[in-house]
Amino acid sequence: MWVYLNQQFVEDDQARISVFDRGFLFGDGVFETLRVYDTRLLFLNRHLQRLHQSCELLGLSLPTPHPEWETLLQEVVERNDLHHSMIRITISRGVGGVGPDPSGCSNSTIVMFPRPVPQLSKDQKKHGVSLTILNTRRQPSLALPSQVKSLNYLNNILAKQEAINAHTFDGILLNTEGFLAECTTSNFFFAKEQRLHTPSLQCGILPGITREIVLELAKEEGIDVQEGMYQPEDLWDADEAFLTNTGFGVLPVNTIETRPLTSSRERSITKTIQHLYEKHIAESI
C-alpha cells in the first residue's frame, strides 16, 4: 500500500510519524474520509470544504504551499489501483508545544491512505440492522465543536463498545439534554406517517456529507422532511429508520431496542431514498 506522508509517497511499512506528534499525544487534529467509486472521488468538494472548516475551527494551519488535494488524492487512487474503496485524510498539528499549549508547532502532519469499504452482509443491506439507545452521551458542542471530525474519537469508541455489548449493530447517542443525536459513525433518520425526521444540527451532531445530500434529494422529491429535537419516545411509533454515512451510503434499520420496524417490503421512504442516492452517485461519477 502506498501512503502519502508529508509531501511524499512511501510504502506503508515506511510510513512513520514522531512519537511527539500532537495527533498521537493529544488527538490534536482532524480527519476526513472519502469514498472512491469506480476510481472516482465522490463528493470531493464537499469533503474538502468540511476538512478546511474543521481546521479553521481548531486553528490548525496547513503547510505552505497548501497541498493540491485533488491531484494527491487521485495519485493515492492510481498508486493503489483503487476502484471501490475509502481514503482517509488525517491532519495533526504536528510536533511542538508543551502540554495542551500548541504554541511552537511549525508544520502540520498530513497523512492519506486507502481504507476498505465497510463490509455488510446481504441480510444487513436488504433487511437492515439493529440499534440500541445508548447511555453514553454525545459530547456537547460547547466542549468540542460538533462540526469538527476530530482525532479525539474516544466518545465514539466508548459508544461503540456499549453497542457491541448490547449485541446490536450500532447505537444512538443522546445529547446531554436527552435528545436524539447520532450513531457512532453515522447520522440517523426515522419516518412516520410519511414524514421523514432527523435530529437537527442544534442537537450537536456532525453535519454528515451523506446526510446533507439525502436532505437535498428528499426535498427535491417532495418528501416532507423535518429537522428537529426528538426524544427516544418519538421513535416508539416510527414506521421506518435508516442510517447515512460515506462508507455504506443509506442503510436500513430493522430494530430499535427490541421493537421491530416495518418489514423490508413495506419500507417505502427508505427505498425511495436509497434509489435517489444511488442514482445521484451514478450521475456524479
Automatic annotation (TrEMBL):
InterPro entries noted in UniProt: Aminodeoxychorismate_lyase_IV, Aminotrans_IV, Aminotrans_IV_CS, Aminotransferase-like, BCAT-like_C, BCAT-like_N, Class-IV_PLP-Dep_Aminotrnsfr
UniProt keyword terms in alphabetical order: Folate biosynthesis, Lyase, Pyridoxal phosphate
Gene3D superfamilies cross-referenced by the UniProt entry: 3.30.470.10, D-amino Acid Aminotransferase, subunit A, domain 2
PROSITE patterns named among the record's database cross-references: AA_TRANSFER_CLASS_4
Catalytic reaction annotation: L-leucine + 2-oxoglutarate = 4-methyl-2-oxopentanoate + L-glutamate; L-valine + 2-oxoglutarate = 3-methyl-2-oxobutanoate + L-glutamate; 4-amino-4-deoxychorismate = 4-aminobenzoate + pyruvate + H(+); L-isoleucine + 2-oxoglutarate = (S)-3-methyl-2-oxopentanoate + L-glutamate
Cofactor(s) for this UniProt protein: pyridoxal 5'-phosphate
EC number: 4.1.3.38
Top-level lineage group: Bacteria
Pfam hit, one: Aminotran_4
Pathway the protein acts in: Amino-acid biosynthesis; L-leucine biosynthesis; L-leucine from 3-methyl-2-oxobutanoate: step 4/4; Amino-acid biosynthesis; L-isoleucine biosynthesis; L-isoleucine from 2-oxobutanoate: step 4/4; Amino-acid biosynthesis; L-valine biosynthesis; L-valine from pyruvate: step 4/4; Cofactor biosynthesis; tetrahydrofolate biosynthesis; 4-aminobenzoate from chorismate: step 2/2
GO terms assigned for molecular function: 4-amino-4-deoxychorismate lyase activity
Similarity section: Belongs to the class-IV pyridoxal-phosphate-dependent aminotransferase family.
Quaternary organization: Homodimer.
Protein name (database record): Aminodeoxychorismate lyase
Protein species of origin: Candidatus Nitronereus thalassa
Lineage of the species this protein comes from: Bacteria, Pseudomonadati, Nitrospirota, Nitrospiria, Nitrospirales
Chain's gene name: pabC
